[in-house]
Write the C-alpha coordinates for this entry.
Amino acid sequence: MFEATISPVDAERVLSIFGPRDQHLRAIREAFGVSVVHRDGQIRISGEEPAVAKATTLLEQLKAIVDRTGKLESDEVTRAIDLAAGKTAAAKGGTIDIITAARRVMPRTPGQASYVEAIRRNDLTFSIGPAGSGKTYLAVALAVEALKQKKIRKIVLVRPAVEAAARCLARNARSRINQTLHGAGYH
Protein backbone atom coordinates (compact mmCIF):
# COMPACT_ATOMS: atom_id res chain seq x y z
CA MET A 1 0.00 0.00 0.00
CA PHE A 2 1.41 3.38 -1.04
CA GLU A 3 0.25 6.83 0.15
CA ALA A 4 0.66 10.38 -1.20
CA THR A 5 -0.44 13.73 0.20
CA ILE A 6 -1.48 17.00 -1.41
CA SER A 7 -1.48 20.04 0.85
CA PRO A 8 -2.64 22.61 1.74
CA VAL A 9 -6.16 22.38 0.38
CA ASP A 10 -8.92 24.42 1.97
CA ALA A 11 -12.46 23.04 2.32
CA GLU A 12 -13.91 25.29 -0.41
CA ARG A 13 -11.44 24.03 -3.02
CA VAL A 14 -11.99 20.44 -1.94
CA LEU A 15 -15.72 20.85 -2.56
CA SER A 16 -14.98 21.98 -6.11
CA ILE A 17 -12.40 19.24 -6.72
CA PHE A 18 -14.56 16.44 -5.28
CA GLY A 19 -17.63 17.75 -7.13
CA PRO A 20 -21.32 17.85 -6.29
CA ARG A 21 -22.19 14.97 -3.97
CA ASP A 22 -18.57 13.73 -4.41
CA GLN A 23 -19.28 12.91 -8.06
CA HIS A 24 -15.71 13.68 -9.23
CA LEU A 25 -14.21 11.88 -6.25
CA ARG A 26 -16.14 8.68 -7.04
CA ALA A 27 -15.03 8.84 -10.68
CA ILE A 28 -11.37 9.18 -9.61
CA ARG A 29 -11.66 6.30 -7.13
CA GLU A 30 -13.25 4.04 -9.76
CA ALA A 31 -10.79 4.99 -12.52
CA PHE A 32 -7.64 4.35 -10.47
CA GLY A 33 -8.76 2.03 -7.67
CA VAL A 34 -7.44 4.34 -4.96
CA SER A 35 -8.74 5.68 -1.68
CA VAL A 36 -8.98 9.49 -1.45
CA VAL A 37 -9.63 11.28 1.84
CA HIS A 38 -9.58 14.94 2.91
CA ARG A 39 -8.50 15.60 6.50
CA ASP A 40 -6.79 18.51 8.24
CA GLY A 41 -6.38 20.53 5.04
CA GLN A 42 -4.71 17.67 3.16
CA ILE A 43 -5.88 15.27 0.48
CA ARG A 44 -4.49 11.78 1.08
CA ILE A 45 -4.39 9.23 -1.72
CA SER A 46 -3.62 5.58 -0.98
CA GLY A 47 -3.45 2.40 -3.06
CA GLU A 48 -1.03 0.73 -5.46
CA GLU A 49 1.97 2.96 -6.29
CA PRO A 50 1.32 3.50 -10.05
CA ALA A 51 -2.36 4.26 -9.43
CA VAL A 52 -1.54 6.64 -6.57
CA ALA A 53 0.99 8.45 -8.77
CA LYS A 54 -1.59 8.94 -11.56
CA ALA A 55 -4.37 9.96 -9.17
CA THR A 56 -2.07 12.40 -7.34
CA THR A 57 -1.00 14.04 -10.61
CA LEU A 58 -4.65 14.25 -11.67
CA LEU A 59 -5.76 15.79 -8.38
CA GLU A 60 -2.93 18.35 -8.56
CA GLN A 61 -4.06 19.28 -12.08
CA LEU A 62 -7.66 19.63 -10.91
CA LYS A 63 -6.50 21.75 -7.96
CA ALA A 64 -4.60 24.02 -10.38
CA ILE A 65 -7.73 24.43 -12.52
CA VAL A 66 -9.79 25.35 -9.45
CA ASP A 67 -7.07 27.80 -8.33
CA ARG A 68 -7.06 29.40 -11.78
CA THR A 69 -10.78 29.46 -12.63
CA GLY A 70 -12.53 29.00 -9.29
CA LYS A 71 -14.66 26.13 -10.59
CA LEU A 72 -14.45 22.71 -12.16
CA GLU A 73 -16.82 21.35 -14.81
CA SER A 74 -17.72 17.65 -14.97
CA ASP A 75 -16.54 17.31 -18.58
CA GLU A 76 -13.13 18.74 -17.60
CA VAL A 77 -12.82 16.12 -14.87
CA THR A 78 -13.89 13.30 -17.20
CA ARG A 79 -11.43 14.42 -19.87
CA ALA A 80 -8.62 14.73 -17.29
CA ILE A 81 -9.36 11.24 -15.89
CA ASP A 82 -9.38 9.73 -19.38
CA LEU A 83 -6.09 11.43 -20.26
CA ALA A 84 -4.45 10.33 -17.01
CA ALA A 85 -5.68 6.76 -17.47
CA GLY A 86 -4.67 6.75 -21.17
CA LYS A 87 -8.23 6.03 -22.31
CA THR A 88 -8.81 8.86 -24.79
CA ALA A 89 -8.26 9.33 -28.45
CA ALA A 90 -5.73 11.97 -27.41
CA ALA A 91 -3.59 9.14 -26.09
CA LYS A 92 -4.06 7.48 -29.49
CA GLY A 93 -3.05 10.70 -31.29
CA GLY A 94 -0.08 11.09 -28.98
CA THR A 95 1.59 14.22 -27.83
CA ILE A 96 3.04 16.68 -30.26
CA ASP A 97 6.77 17.17 -29.78
CA ILE A 98 6.51 20.77 -28.62
CA ILE A 99 7.36 21.20 -24.98
CA THR A 100 6.45 24.60 -23.57
CA ALA A 101 7.13 25.82 -20.09
CA ALA A 102 3.44 25.48 -19.28
CA ARG A 103 2.46 22.10 -20.75
CA ARG A 104 2.65 19.55 -23.54
CA VAL A 105 0.62 20.07 -26.70
CA MET A 106 -1.78 17.19 -27.38
CA PRO A 107 -5.23 16.63 -28.88
CA ARG A 108 -8.01 16.86 -26.29
CA THR A 109 -10.91 15.27 -28.15
CA PRO A 110 -11.37 12.30 -30.49
CA GLY A 111 -11.96 14.76 -33.35
CA GLN A 112 -8.70 16.56 -32.64
CA ALA A 113 -6.87 13.21 -32.44
CA SER A 114 -8.25 12.26 -35.86
CA TYR A 115 -7.20 15.67 -37.18
CA VAL A 116 -3.64 15.20 -35.86
CA GLU A 117 -3.46 11.73 -37.43
CA ALA A 118 -4.76 13.10 -40.75
CA ILE A 119 -2.14 15.86 -40.78
CA ARG A 120 0.63 13.38 -40.00
CA ARG A 121 -0.60 10.95 -42.65
CA ASN A 122 -1.26 13.41 -45.53
CA ASP A 123 0.65 16.20 -47.27
CA LEU A 124 -2.45 18.40 -47.52
CA THR A 125 -5.31 18.44 -45.00
CA PHE A 126 -8.50 20.53 -45.12
CA SER A 127 -10.39 21.10 -41.91
CA ILE A 128 -13.65 22.83 -41.10
CA GLY A 129 -15.14 23.43 -37.70
CA PRO A 130 -16.27 26.06 -35.24
CA ALA A 131 -13.97 28.84 -34.15
CA GLY A 132 -11.91 27.98 -31.09
CA SER A 133 -11.87 24.23 -31.67
CA GLY A 134 -8.08 24.09 -32.00
CA LYS A 135 -7.65 23.63 -35.76
CA THR A 136 -4.99 26.31 -36.28
CA TYR A 137 -3.30 25.68 -32.93
CA LEU A 138 -2.78 21.98 -33.63
CA ALA A 139 -1.77 22.57 -37.26
CA VAL A 140 0.90 25.10 -36.24
CA ALA A 141 2.11 22.84 -33.41
CA LEU A 142 2.49 19.96 -35.87
CA ALA A 143 4.30 22.23 -38.33
CA VAL A 144 6.75 23.32 -35.62
CA GLU A 145 7.22 19.68 -34.62
CA ALA A 146 8.05 18.74 -38.23
CA LEU A 147 10.45 21.70 -38.47
CA LYS A 148 12.22 20.67 -35.23
CA GLN A 149 12.52 17.10 -36.49
CA LYS A 150 13.90 18.41 -39.81
CA LYS A 151 11.10 16.75 -41.80
CA ILE A 152 10.49 20.14 -43.43
CA ARG A 153 12.72 23.16 -44.12
CA LYS A 154 10.26 26.01 -43.65
CA ILE A 155 6.72 26.87 -42.62
CA VAL A 156 4.62 28.95 -45.00
CA LEU A 157 1.66 30.81 -43.53
CA VAL A 158 -1.13 31.85 -45.93
CA ARG A 159 -4.35 33.78 -45.59
CA PRO A 160 -7.59 31.97 -46.35
CA ALA A 161 -9.25 32.82 -49.68
CA VAL A 162 -12.52 33.48 -47.80
CA GLU A 163 -11.23 36.85 -46.61
CA ALA A 164 -10.29 37.88 -50.14
CA ALA A 165 -13.65 36.72 -51.47
CA ALA A 166 -15.52 38.74 -48.84
CA ARG A 167 -14.54 41.95 -50.66
CA CYS A 168 -16.47 40.97 -53.74
CA LEU A 169 -19.69 39.56 -52.29
CA ALA A 170 -21.82 41.63 -54.68
CA ARG A 171 -20.41 39.78 -57.72
CA ASN A 172 -21.58 36.39 -58.88
CA ALA A 173 -19.82 33.17 -57.88
CA ARG A 174 -17.97 32.68 -61.20
CA SER A 175 -16.49 36.17 -60.99
CA ARG A 176 -15.35 35.61 -57.40
CA ILE A 177 -13.76 32.25 -58.23
CA ASN A 178 -11.96 33.71 -61.25
CA GLN A 179 -10.67 36.63 -59.16
CA THR A 180 -9.43 34.27 -56.42
CA LEU A 181 -7.73 31.93 -58.90
CA HIS A 182 -6.20 34.84 -60.81
CA GLY A 183 -4.82 36.25 -57.55
CA ALA A 184 -3.29 32.87 -56.72
CA GLY A 185 -1.54 32.68 -60.10
CA TYR A 186 -3.91 30.24 -61.83
CA HIS A 187 -4.91 32.07 -65.03
Summary: The CA atoms of residues 29 and 35 lie 6 Å apart. The longest strand covers residues 42-47. The two ends are 73 Å apart (CA to CA).
